[in-house]
Sequence to fold (230 residues):
Amino acid sequence: MAFLFTSNAYSQTQGLGTWSVISTKYTLTKQWNVFFEAQLRSQAFYNNFSYHEYKGGIGYNFPKSISAILAMGHYVTYQPDGNFKTPQLSNEFRIWEQFVLNNNINRLKIEHRYRIEQRFLTDGYRNRFRYRLNALYPINNLVIKEKTWYLSLNNEVFLNNDGMIFEQNRIYGGIGYQINKQLTIQAGYMNRWDNFGPGKQQSKNFFQTVLLFSLNEFKSGRELHPSSVD
Fold:
C-alpha cells in the first residue's frame, strides 16, 4: 500500500519543471534563530503547478560551526497535469530534526547536513533519513559577503527504514549572488531521481530559483553560508 501511494503521489510529466523557494532566517542571539520557508513547484515551465509546502522552526548554534534545527511543515502534492488540480495525491504534516556541520577548505565552503523526518501522510506514518553534501565557492571574494558571486553544488540522498531503503536522490548546480547582508538570490538546475521499486524509477529536471533573507545574521558571529532549508 505504501509503495502504491508513493508512486502515485510523485507522478511527473515530461519537460523542465520549476522549483521556487523563498526563505527567511531571523537571528535572535549568537545561539538562537528562527526561520520560515515556502516552496512552489510545477511540472512544466511555470505552469502545471502541482506542489506547495511551507515550514518553520527554531535553530541553535553550537560551538565550532555545528548547528541544529527543530521544525515542522505542511506539504501538499496535486495532480501533475494541471494547476493545483484535485484530488490531492498527498497531504502531509512533517516534523523533523537536523544537524549541520560547516567547514572550509581554503575558500571552498562545505556543508554536511543530516536530517531525520517524522512523516504523517494520507496513508499512514513513516520515517525518513536525509543527508546532503553542499559546496559553495565564492568567485570574486575569499568569503561570501556583500556583492559576492558564488557557485553552489549539492547532492542529497533520501533513505527509509521500511520498504525501499533508497527512495530519492537530488543533485543541484547553480550560481548565487549575495546582494547585501540581508538578501541572497540563487538560480540553477536540479535533477530529482525517484525510486519506486525494481524497474520503477523516474527522473525529472527543474529550474530552481531561491530568494534568501537573512536578518541580523551578524549576531551569530559566523561566516555566511547561504543555503535554503529545503
Summary: The domain at 2-10+18-220 is CATH 2.40.128 (Lipocalin).
